[in-house]
C-alpha cells in the first residue's frame, strides 16, 4: 500500500507540470487577445436581430440596456441564433447563407462563413461541437466545427436519388448527437446521427405529408413534430423509437373547412407546454390549437385575434403568449392555460415579430419591427419597464437557450 | 422545383387570359403611401422571398427572375396567389393599385 510505483508518480508529476505550462500559455494568450472590461456571466444576456441592417444587439436584461452591437452579419431578413454550450458565443444563421459566430461578451465577430446561397436556420449538437445549418439553396444541411467553423459534413437533401434537392426546414438537435430536419419539397423527415464521428448515419422517413413548413422537438428531446402546410395535421416521430416510423396527429383538424390565406408561415420554435397541454398555431385560421400530450389528440381550439405566428408559454406555464401575422401584427394576446380564455391583450406597436421570456419568467421582451424598438414588459402586470431603440428588430434569443435541447 | 415553375407559368397564363388586366398606361393611384408599400414589399413579402428578394421559401423576385412575367401577370399573382404553392392571395390586404405598384417595384429592382 505504501509503496506507490515510482514511475507512475513521476509520470503524474510530469503531466501536471506540462498541464500547468500549457495553462499558463493559454492564460497569457487569452490576456493578449482580448481584454474584457470586467468579468461577468452571460445568463442574463440576450442577442437581438436587427434584420434591416445586418447587425445584432446584445441586451442586458438586468440593466435593461444594450451592452453593444455587432455589425457586418449580412442579410438577416430571416435569421435565428443558437448558443455555444458555455453561453458566450452566438451562432447567427442569416438568410444569405452566412454563418457568423459572435462573442456576446466582447461584442465581436470571431468567425464567419458564407456556407450557402440561402438559409433558414440552424442547430447545435448535444455535445456543442457541431453547428448544423438548414439551407434552401443548395437544399440540404451543412455541418461545421463549432470552434473553427470548418466544414465537417455536407448533407444534400436529395429528392429520391437526386439530382434535384429539397429546401430544408425545421432543423433541430436531438439527444445522442443527432440532428433532425424536414424536407419542404419532398415531404420527408431525416435523422442524421453524429454519435460515432463526423460521418453521419442518415435515416430517411419518406411520404410523411405535404410541405412540412417547420418543426419542433419537445424539451426532453423525445418527440419531433413537424407542421404541414400542404394539408391539415402534423406528423410526429418518437425519437426513443424511430423504428416505429412517423405518426399523424391532429389528422382530423380542419377537414372540410376553408382556411384563410396564410400571409406568413407560423413558427413552431419552442414547445408551448403547460402541464399536459401543448399549444400550437393553427395554419390559416384565427385559432390556437390545444393538444393533450398523452394522447396527442386535439382537446380544444381557442379563437384569437389573427393568424398566430409564435405561440410561447410563459416559463411558469400559467399563460401562453401569441403574436400574429400581417395585418394583425400590432397585437399580442395572452391565453390562460386553465380556462383556455384570452386573459390579456397588448398593442405594443406595429409589426410585433417575436417574444422571448427571461428564463424564470420575470420579464418578456417583444420586438416591434415598424416602431424600431424592443420593449420589455413585466408579464404579470403587463407594464412596460424598458423600451430600447433598434432598427427593424426581429428575433430575440436569451442565452439560456445554450442549455436547452432544440433551441 | 421545375414542376412547380411550369405550373406557375401555366397558372399565370390562365389567369392573365381569364381576368381583364388593368392597362399599363393607366395612371397609378395607390391606396397606400409609397413608403408603406415599399416597407410591405421588403418586410412582409420579404418574409418568404427575402428582404433583398433573393428568395427563401418563396422564389427569388429580382428583375432577372421576373423577365417572363408582365406587370399584369405579377399583379394577378399578388392579388390571387398561386394555388398549390405557399403564395397566398393578398386581395384582402392589398388593393389592385397597390399590387400594380408592387409589381412595378419588383420589375424595376426596387426603383419606383
From TrEMBL, chain A:
Record Gene3D superfamilies: C-terminal (heme d1) domain of cytochrome cd1-nitrite reductase
Transmembrane annotation, as ranges: none
One Pfam family recorded for the sequence: Cytochrom_D1
Source taxon at top rank: Bacteria
Signal peptide range in chain numbering: none
PANTHER family (alphabetical): DIHYDRO-HEME D1 DEHYDROGENASE, PROTEIN NIRF
Protein name, entry field: Cytochrome D1 domain-containing protein
